Structure formats: C-alpha cells, structure tokens
Amino acid sequence: FAEGIMMCYFGSWAVWRPGNGRFDVDDIDPQLCTHLVFGFAGLTNVTWEIEVLDTWNELCEDWGRCAFNRFTALKEQNPNLKTLIAVGGWSEGSVDYSVMAADPVKRKTFIDSSIALTLAHDFDGFDMDWEYPANRGGAPQDKENFITLMQEMKVALDAHGLMLTCAVSMGKGTIDTAYDIPAMNQVFDYINLMAYDFHGAWETFTHHNAPLYAHPDDEGDAIPFNVDFGVNYWIENGASPEKLTLGIGTYGRCYTLDNSHITGYYAPAGNPGHQGPYTRTPGVLGYNEICEYQQADPGSWTTVVDPVMNEPYTYFLGNNIWCGYDDAASVAIKADYAKNKGLAGTMVWSLETDDFLGLCGRKFDLIKTMVEAFDGGIVFTTPE
C-alpha cells in the first residue's frame, strides 16, 4: 500500500442478513484496506451525545457482541491499518445534526462524547457523515456551522493524535449549499467522495448508479450527474486532490423495465427493481447478489457495456429487472482515473456487498481490483 489509500466502509447491520449475505467484523480481511470505517454511530436529540445505534451488537456490556472492539482489534493482524468510527449516514438524516451544530453547548456535548467513544474502543479517528448540511431539513447556516463543529472536533481529536475524515456528496446542488470547500480542505485529513447514487429508481428511466462520464443523452440538470464532474468540481472549488478519495460502490441501482423490448439507458422504468435476498431493499442489489444471480442463471441475464459508458448494466427479462452496477473492469477504470487525477486513493461503500465469499471469483474481487489498479501492480497474490 505504499501508494494509495483504500478507505473501506463497513455497514455493520450486515451481520443480521441471511445466508450468504451475513457479514460480520470477522469476515473483514484486515490486509485489504489502509483504513476501515465502521458505519454507523448516530446522534441522540435527547442528550446531544453520540449514540451507539445497535448496542447489543456493538458493545460488550450485557453479553453484547463487542463489534467495536473486534473491529479495532483487526489492527493486531495488520499494524499499518487505521480504524475509524463513522457518525451519520443516510438514515440518520440531517435535522438533529443541524440543531446540534448551531449550539455551542450541544456541539461540546457531541464532541466530548465522540472523543470518549473513539478512545474507549481504540479507534484511530472519526469520520463525519452528515447527509447533508443545509439539505434534507437542515438550515442554510449549516454550511458555516458544519465548519465550526469540525474545527472544534479537530482540536479535540488532535489532542489525542486522532484522524478526522468525512464523507461528502457529489451532487452540485448539495455541494453548493452544504460545503465551504476551502475551509473543509483545512480541517479534514481526507474527504471521501460518495461518487455513486447519481441515478436510481426515484427516477422514471434507467441510468447508471455511478457513471464516470456523462451519457450523451444527459441534458439540463442531469449533465453534472457523473463522477468526473464531481471530482473536478471539488478540486476547482478548493479541495486538494491529495486529500480526496474516490468512492466506488460495490452495488447497483436497479429498476423494473416498463417494456421488455426497451432495455438500454433511458429506458422507461417506473418502479424499483425487485429486492435481493440479502440487501432486501427494492431498487438496490449488492454486487454479491448480482453475481450470484448471474452465475445461477447465466443464460437469462444479459450484461451490456454500452460503448459510450465505462460501466456495465445487466437485465433479466424474467422479472424485467435492470441494474447499473460496477464490475471488476469498471472499478479498475475508476481507480486508474483517481490515480491520474492525483487523488489520495479510493474509497468503497461497502465491504459487505463485494463478493466476500469468492462465489464468483476471488474473494473481495472489486476491492482488490481497485487497489491493484491504483497501485499499478498485482498486490494480492496469496492463495485462497
């Protein structure tokens, strides 16, 4: 790992998934990533402290499963590994963070409790995933208050030699309202670009979860909905490339086609794709689910790499599901892109939807491919 950062998020709720989808701390390969990020802790609007969201899984008290401690103990198997605790995420929303960030007393309560939790479980740092300041019910002044909160957090973390990172939006409208980029560039060690969820079943047509470049038919507000635009926009507005990690998704966004004869980009699709057995969320399939489906019935799944796009899509006319996702070839292109842009490395959401069991190839093939492409050599040669 001499060269690139590999920032890997862990969605800790995957421990409750059935069958081959179940993924726990012990399923993480400690040699895979430079940084492991535990998703997620939250914020309680009762006391304004950091909140453990799944106490029985994450803590040791009351015969709990000790996930935090087991997660940071992965460092024993890789002395160079850094572990971080992430706070926020999509489900936590924005409103409580907005209220907390506006009040110096609430900020101090949140920061003090966050430092205590980080130290108690031997994390190496703190990852702020407020989604998003000044959006989703937040207030316009969040942009400024987010910086104040993070400056105060940085002082507290620095006293203990701990890292501060964040995960951020790649949507132009969100960036413009949420982020004072030059100030963020000063305060964060790394800024993780969530370069996915550009399109999905909230729209009425098929498109890719994470297009590297615009599709020729993109127009109007949709023209910036791609990875390249977002990376350039962050840099042009004051982010140092060497602080940015390029987020790559190990999942697809899926639709139900309206018409089985119209199957390309911008095909009419009024509904989300059927939920998968593990992620159990309409409109989303993990790469592990997609590759298992394709392997189980290879003759019925059609996979296409449109020459105008870097990423594949796949569809199955048995139930008209259509998914735009990333495979080994497309994540290699994205990691190479990140390298050529001078970024710090890559980030992945998330460990538990890669092919971690190796049912379709080598274990964690997408993450290994990212590292190999960014670092420019075969890294993972150990037999499995």
Summarize the structure.
The protein is of the alpha/beta class.
Considering the chains and any ligands shown, give keywords for the structure.
384 residues; alpha/beta; TIM Barrel; eight-stranded parallel β-barrel; six-stranded antiparallel beta sheet; 11 helices; hydrolase; Chitinase_insertion_sf
Shape: globular
By DSSP (H or I, 4+ residues per run), the number of helices equals 11
Instruction: Please report which band the strand proportion falls in: under 5%, 5-15%, 15-25%, 25-35%, 35-45% or over 45%.
Output: 15-25%
Q: Could you give the order of the helices and strands?
A: EEEHHEHHEHEHHEHEEEEHEEEHEH
Write up this protein.
The structure is a single chain. This protein has 11 helices and 15 strands. The chain has a single domain (5-249, 327-375), classed as TIM Barrel (Alpha-Beta Barrel). 28% of the residues lie in helices and 19% in strands. 48% of the residues are buried. The model has no long low-confidence stretch (mean pLDDT 97). It has helices at residues 55-58, 67-72, 95-101, 104-120, 142-158, 172-178, 181-187, 227-236, 287-296, 328-340, 365-375; strands at 5-11, 35-43, 50-51, 82-88, 125-129, 163-168, 190-193, 244-249, 251-256, 271-272, 284-286, 301-304, 313-316, 321-324, 345-349.
